[in-house]
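Quick illustration, no need to memorize.
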Amino acid sequence: MVHLKDFAQEGLPRLLEVDNRLILPIKTDIRIITTSTDVIHA
């Protein structure tokens, strides 16, 4: 979890920052598998 105090110090956008960044290939189908324990807020 990224703590709120870290955002204030670094000036990072709070809702766009993640714990582990991911680099994905372009022009490739990406499948995201979620379970009932996952929560997606849109």
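The chain has a mean pLDDT of 73.
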